Amino acid sequence: MVRTGLVAGNWKMNGSLEQNQALLTAVVAGIRSLDRVNCAVCVPFPYLAQAQVLLNQTHLAWGAQNLSQYTHGAYTGEVSASMLVDFGVQFVIVGHSERRALFGESDQLVAEKFKTAQTAKLIPILCVGETLTQREANETESVIAGQLEAVIELNGVQALANAVIAYEPVWAIGTGKTATPQQAQDVHVFIRDKIATRDNQIAANVRIIYGGSVKADNARELFAMPDIDGGLIGGASLVADDFVSICKAAQH
Ligand SMILES: O=C[C@H](O)COP(=O)(O)O
């Protein structure tokens, strides 16, 4: 089977109305001719309205970087799935390592956010990945298995049919230290095999993308690996030419 590649930008806490306008306009123009890869940007909440206006009817989808596990009510500062739907959001990142490490999001909470997203028909981009200490202690597989199992336990393996998994080794995020294509491929195969123990078809179809210092000059070799279906791009998604090059590299 052929999985359509996905390149999603994660702007993190960056941007301004003025910068976004220039960036989005340039990216939309740059990816116009790409018809065999899906491209998206996950922007900070306040810019969803701007993304909706600028990206409607273009090849660039938009998404959010987080959501509340609650649907509505007295949860000051939270943003619900239905609010994201109001702004035409298609994707939402859940369980990014920065949220796990800096904001205390547990595997269980991530699984709940995943559920809330899917209930609202949003496509969760579920981030999994190990720290350097965990890799050096040979815990990569057990850590990722735990992160994945929490989501499968709560949501069922079928839920992965409408989701994307992003493998993001924490030691490669924003460090300029990319996993080698083979290192990334090995973990992607581990993830796919793990899912296959529950359901072969879902495992074969689910898109597993790689994140961690993907740049215009290393994207092609990463995306050439058979189980790497695209990328979740941080820093390089803030530079139009770089992001467009990475999107092009994912079109096989
Ligand atoms: O979500 C994106 C990742 O955290 C990767 O960020 P990076 O490309 O800046 O390393």
Automatic annotation (TrEMBL):
Give me the residues that bind substrate, please: N10, W11, K12, G174, S213, G234, G235
Which residues are the active-site ones?
H96 (electrophile), E168 (proton acceptor)
| Keyword terms, alphabetized | Cytoplasm, Gluconeogenesis, Glycolysis, Isomerase
- Which cellular compartments is it found in? Cytoplasm
Q: SUPFAM superfamilies per the record?
A: Triosephosphate isomerase (TIM) (SSF51351)
The protein's annotated pathway: Carbohydrate biosynthesis; gluconeogenesis; Carbohydrate degradation; glycolysis; D-glyceraldehyde 3-phosphate from glycerone phosphate: step 1/1; Carbohydrate metabolism; erythritol degradation
Look up the EC number in the record and give it: 5.3.1.1
Q: Name one GO biological process term.
A: glycolytic process
Q: Name one GO cellular component term.
A: cytosol
Q: Which Pfam families match?
A: TIM
Q: Top enzyme class of this protein? A: isomerase
Please give the chief subcellular localization of this protein. cytoplasm
InterPro entries reported in the protein's UniProt record? Aldolase_TIM, TIM_sf, TrioseP_Isoase_bac/euk, Triosephosphate_isomerase, Triosephosphate_isomerase_AS
Asked if the record carries the keyword Repeat, the reply is: no
Report a single Gene Ontology molecular function: triose-phosphate isomerase activity
What is catalysed by this protein? Answer: D-glyceraldehyde 3-phosphate = dihydroxyacetone phosphate
Q: What does this protein do?
A: Involved in the gluconeogenesis. Catalyzes stereospecifically the conversion of dihydroxyacetone phosphate (DHAP) to D-glyceraldehyde-3-phosphate (G3P).
Q: How does it assemble?
A: Homodimer.
The similarity annotation says: Belongs to the triosephosphate isomerase family.
Matching entries from PANTHER family are given as: TRIOSEPHOSPHATE ISOMERASE
Q: What is this protein called?
A: Triosephosphate isomerase
Q: What is the native source organism of this protein?
A: Nitrosomonas mobilis
Whichever gene encodes this chain, its name is tpiA
